[in-house]
Design a protein that fits this description.
By secondary structure, the protein is mostly helical. The protein has helices spanning 2-13, 15-24, 30-50, 65-89, 96-105, 108-121, 129-155, 159-204.
């Protein structure tokens, strides 16, 4: 476990070499990957609940854990599935487990910088807003860079191919979301029809 933690920390600061070891040396821990995903969910919950009042637009009484879970964990799973599907079509060399490790490890900078943002927001004044939002932006940018370099390494694509891979992954997520909305709407209409039919039968009886 100590070796896995050391490699994970190294990968955050040296994503090219770190993910190269995931590709060729079998480095990367599934346990740490799931832990990172769990922390990603928790930090989004904390962000909604504990961010300083001046920087928090959420109503604490209307926060839904299910919604946060669906957006955070569901979003990560959609990215993972879409990238796996796209990479299979593009002949990417990344294995399923490697894609998962890259995806989850890349969340770590976002988790750390969001935690710093939450902490600082409870002590900072509105005059510090630019600095705090810059702190948050650094975490997002770092996560995006880690994700890009990770996909670049495990799929063994060139720079242009990796950009196309990322764009197609985003497109794949959009398609899956569209299909999910369509399926939800279809089931909602079927339920409404059956409920109306049942009500009519019961009324006539």
């Amino acid at each position: 476990m100590r070796e896995n933690l050391k490699h994970c920390k190294y990968t955050v600061f040296h994503p090219v070499i770190g993910f190269e070891e995931v590709k060729w040396n079998g480095k990367g821990s599934y346990l740490l990957s799931f832990a990172a995903l769990f922390l990603f969910f928790l930090i989004n919950v904390f962000s909604a609940q504990l961010t300083g009042f001046s920087f928090n637009g959420n109503n604490p009484d209307k926060i839904s854990l299910f919604s946060i879970f669906a957006v955070s964990v569901g979003g990560v799973l959609l990215w993972f599935i879409a990238n796996w599907a796209v990479s299979s079509l593009m002949d990417g060399e990344g294995k399923t487990g490697q894609i998962w490790v890259v995806t989850c490890y890349s969340l770590i900078p976002y988790i750390v910088f969001t935690a710093l943002f939450i902490l600082a927001s409870n002590f900072a004044s509105l005059e510090m807003a630019t600095f705090l939002y810059l702190l948050q932006a650094v975490g997002i940018a770092w996560t995006c860079l880690m994700m890009f370099f990770g996909l670049y390494q495990i799929h063994q694509l060139d720079f242009k191919g990796t950009v196309v891979n990322v764009l197609l992954t985003i497109f794949g997520i959009a398609v899956m979301l569209f299909l999910m909305v369509m399926i939800y709407s279809l089931f909602q209409q079927i339920y409404s029809f059956l409920y109306t039919l049942f009500s009519e039968i019961m009324f006539r009886m």
